[in-house]
Amino acid sequence: MKKLFTPLFALILAGGVFTGCKTHEEGAYTPVNATKYDLENTERFVLLDPGAQRSVTTAGPIQEKVLADGRLQVTTNVRNRENRRIQVQINCVFKDEQGFPIDETPFKNLILTENSQEGVTFTAMNTQARKYTIRVREAR
């Protein structure tokens, strides 16, 4: 019995070792969930984290203006939804006609008192900007 068991066990073990894992050598793959979290591509005002989503909103429409030199200027009212003083960071990504980023402002701190709102203005650095996304995140 022992003579039969050892070769049979060795055969099973060798079969497991030589089969290995299945590899995928079929070529390129398409992206998964390519449109699930792409709000920065479709919206003009986005909140980047749950804290900002809970505390901040935009009040009214975003004002868009083309300056005399051809640069795009946008102004939004940022409103504190909470009954406490908060600090957030805000910036704007300016994009070309196709939606590709061409200019981005640095994040700046914005302190909002209880239930207040404040206007924030951004101006593109060049004349190629046609679209934009204003982004807000919690200050850390």
Strand content: 35-45%
Taking the alpha carbons of the first and last residues, their distance comes to 70 Å
Shape: elongated
Q: Count every beta strand, where a strand is a DSSP E run of 2 or more residues.
A: 9
Helix content: 10-25%
Order of helices and strands: HHEHEEEEEEEE
User: Main β-sheet, in a few words?
Assistant: 5 strands, mixed
Low-confidence stretches: none
CA-atom Rg in angstroms? 27 Å
What does it look like?
- With 140 residues, the protein is an alpha+beta fold.
- It has three helices and nine strands, in the order ααβαββββββββ.
- The strands form two sheets. Strands 1, 5, 6, 7 and 9 form a five-stranded mixed beta sheet that branches.
- A hairpin with a 5-residue loop joins β5 and β6.
- It is elongated and about 90 Å long.
Characteristics:
5-stranded mixed sheet, 38% strand, alpha+beta, 4-stranded antiparallel sheet
Quick structural gist:
The chain is of the alpha+beta class.
Topology:
Layout lengths: L1 H18 L19 H4 L2 E3 L2 H6 E3 L4 E4 L5 E9 L5 E10 L5 E4 L3 E5 L4 E7 L7 E8 L2
Parallel strand pairs: 1-9
Antiparallel strand pairs: 2-4, 3-4, 4-8, 5-6, 5-7, 5-9
